[in-house]
Amino acid sequence: MTQTIALQIQQPFSDQLRKGYPLISKDAVNAKQLPTEQGTLLKLMDHHNRFIGTGYYGIQNKGIGWVLTTDANETIDKAFFIKKFKKAIDNRAAFFNNDNTTAFRVFNGEGDGIGGLTIDFFNGYYMVSWYSEGIYSFKEMVYEALAETVNYQAIYEKKRFDSKGQYMEQDDFVMGTPGEFPLLVKENGMTYAVHLNDGAMTGIFLDQREVRLAIRERYANSTNMLNTFSYTGAFSVAAALGGANKTTSVDVAKRSLAKTIEQFSVNDIDYEAQDIKVMDVFHYFKYAQRHALQFDLVVLDPPSFARTKQMTFSTAKDYPKLLKDTIAITAKNGIIVASTNNASFGMKKFKSFIDQAFKDTRTRYKIVEEYGLPKDFRVPREYPEFNYLKVVFIQKID
Ligand code: SAH
Q1: Most buried residue among 75, 189, 194, 243 by CB atoms closer than 10 A?
Q2: In this protein, which residues make up the domain named S-adenosylmethionine-dependent methyltransferase (predicted)?
């Protein structure tokens, strides 16, 4: 049985939460009043002891829990989860009815009313991601609610928390009939291979769908394309299908080679005509400069943080350097697709990194397009700060 405790919220946080802000910040509460068990329901009260809402206690790096409802009469039970799931699914009717795209996000945490929980759809299979021990304590209710709401081949899960907030190696199968992997999904007619039970990541980042389409339709044709931090090469596949003369994919992880070959192969692209390099991007930049390589289209999509034997990379600190190295190997009039999913800064700051890099290299540029999260990655309407994705298409003028 889930416990409920009353918890006082300090100002100005109480006003924010009352208006609909979903995240309970660490600074909003007196740590001494926090319960011992994550998953405890919190009856949130203001300093006049007036009801604000009901939330749950779950520790993420962003905060200590999420508001679930501001209706004093609403209880957090299976019916609550069913109601939220049905609404989220109704919102994605256009996705469910589109045969050209069979992988998308069905439930996006706070944007759909339950922070700390996301659900992705992969061609009949569902992937539930849990972001705190707190929300994971509701798992029985959540799985019963989901199983009653959708038709599924199988449900898989990723636990994206432990003491360090990292993914835990585990068997990710939850219920249904286990799938065979790779599972092939469609995205705007392209094919992607996904693995739902093989480590922290599935093979494709669904939030970049619109960027892949833009690359394929409007930017790739006849280019020499470079994809840095390429992972399984999803952007390279989009570029090859969009008519790139050649793609080069660079990722330091050994697994990226086989995974990239797989993505090309399921799209009938001859991977031997493409370059796939397992190496540190920063070493590749030096190699490319030494050989005077020039690219017409470069994708930069680094992780927010990364550590290799020689160095650590943090987007917030190193993006301008990454861009400067890129500018040096981008052809005149070429396009740089600069992307980051770092939630700790917004578009304005990201653009200041771009501006700094071009100023430092005395190069002129033009921003030609911008992207954030696609529609299925719903964010709370009033709070765009939860829209963490920032992608800017930049043309190098000279
Ligand atoms: N752009 C990819 C996702 C990138 S995930 C896509 O759209 O699918 C981040 C990737 O960066 C991981 O595959 C990781 O192995 C790689 N990586 C981290 N540090 C790196 C480095 N210094 N050089 C090359 N790759 C790196």
Answers
A1: 194
A2: 172-347
Give yes or no for residue 229 CB within 6 A of ligand 1. yes
> pTM of this prediction?
0.96
Same domain, 21 and 47: yes
Q: Is 235 in the pocket of ligand 1 (CB under 6 A)?
A: yes
Query: Among residues 11, 19, 7, which one has the least CA distance to residue 383?
Result: 19
* pLDDT greater than 80 at residue 169: no
Instruction: Please list the residues that pair with 41 across neighbouring strands.
Output: 4, 56
Residue having the nearest C-alpha atom to atom 18 of ligand 1:
306
For 346-358, give the DSSP string.
-HHHHHHHHHHHH
Do 55 and 108 share a structural domain? no
Q: Which atom of ligand 1 is nearest to the CA of 204?
A: 8
**Of the residues 139, 157, 186, which one is the last residue of a structural domain?**
186
Does residue 49 sit in the same domain as residue 143? Answer: no
* Angle (CA) 297 303 305, round 5°: 140
Q: How far is the CA of 302 from the centre of ligand 1 (A)?
A: 6
In this structure, the answer to whether residues 210 and 148 fall within a common structural domain is: no
Domain count, the chain: 3
Q: For the chain, what is the largest distance between any 2 Cα atoms, rounded to a whole number of angstroms? A: 69
In a domain, 191, yes or no: no
Domain membership of residue 160 as a residue range = 78-186
Question: If you take atom 9 of ligand 1, which residue's CA is the nearest one?
Answer: 303
- pLDDT, tens digit (0-9, with 9 covering 90-100), for 116-128: 999 999 999 999 9
Residue 185 Cα to ligand 1 midpoint, Å, equals: 22
